[in-house]
Amino acid sequence: MKEEYSQVEKVLDVLNYWCARYKYDEGDLYLALTRTVSMPIVDAFKPFKRIEVDAYFVEKANIALAAYKMFDTEDRNYMAKVIPFFRQMDASNNAELKEGQQKVERVFTDDQVLL
After folding, report:
1. Do residues 29 and 50 make contact, with C-beta atoms less than 8 angstroms apart?
2. Which of the 8 DSSP states describes residue 26?
3. Is the pLDDT of residue 113 over 60?
């Protein structure tokens, strides 16, 4: 019997995958995902230069977006708590990387993602 994932787990699964693959901050990726509610996926992810918005990326984005649209207040509050934790982990991991290894990069300079 397959256990059903929560909406938050679906979004975090996609964000974790994108972060590992493209080396961008999960909070920034989450902010871009939330923007796809009102703008095309291509436009929302335009600031992320290493992301090629191909069919597979759009498929993953649509999975995360469908889950995000079902978020309730508790889910949004949980994301507001977990994103700073991911950012702290990324900063710690970046500090431990050797020269030449790609660090997780921030794209947005503010913390709109937490609002």
Report:
1. no
2. H
3. no
